[in-house]
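Q: I'm writing a short explainer about Glutathione peroxidase for a general audience and would like to include a description of its predicted shape. Could you first generate the structure from this sequence?
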Amino acid sequence: MSVYEFSAKTIQGEDVSLEKYQGKVLLIVNTASKCGFTPQYKELQAVYEQYKEQGLDILGFPCNQFGGQEPGNEGDIEQFCELNYGVTFPMFAKVDVKGNNAHPLFTYLSEKAPGLLGSKAIKWNFTKFLVTKEGDVVKRYAPQTSPADIKKDIEELLTK
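A: Of course. Here's the predicted structure. Afterward I'll give you a sentence or two in plain language.
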């Protein structure tokens, strides 16, 4: 099994199979517009611009499960990301990332890359998952991990 077996709605409402990203290194992030980590959008965009030509895609999944920090609708979120952070990487419709209504992709990511002390639950916004070109989940990063601090791991996967 790989991330390519899942699909999700884009922020514009289009159903997309993640097979579309086959052969690319992926950084999948649950995001929020009103979180202390929201400025990471700027860092994520910088990493995306630095590596997209080499085969990196960043997939942003807004989530309102942590402190109600993503209250807007998809149009609000898209506008916020573009205007405030110049986000051009793919953004998806709001999802749950934990609990009974969690998007199956995030259930899979959590199983494949547990967090601290083996915890599978996603604890906060801006948890990041790194995925190989073959669709295998290799690492989870805590919300406080700066996207810039992931560059070395991204570079390793891009050169494989």
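A: For your explainer, you could say: The chain has four helices and six strands.
Q: Perfect, that's easy to follow.
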